[in-house]
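Look at one such:
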Amino acid sequence: MNGSSIFFLVFSGLIALVGLLAIGMAHDYLQFFGFALFLFGLLFGFGCIKRHFDAQDAAKH
């Protein structure tokens, strides 16, 4: 895993954490924003992991 992959993985984790904090602190429609932010961070992190393993598979062939 190279440095940029690690950076974006940590960045997506921070986005998800900010989303969780927004869910916990909001009372109205901002809870939806926090949930969307959390979901984006989570899916972005999984995408980074998928791209890493796809690159490893491509290097083998």
About this structure: The two ends are 18 Å apart (CA to CA). The chain has one domain: 12-60. Residues 12-60 form one domain. The mean pLDDT is 93.
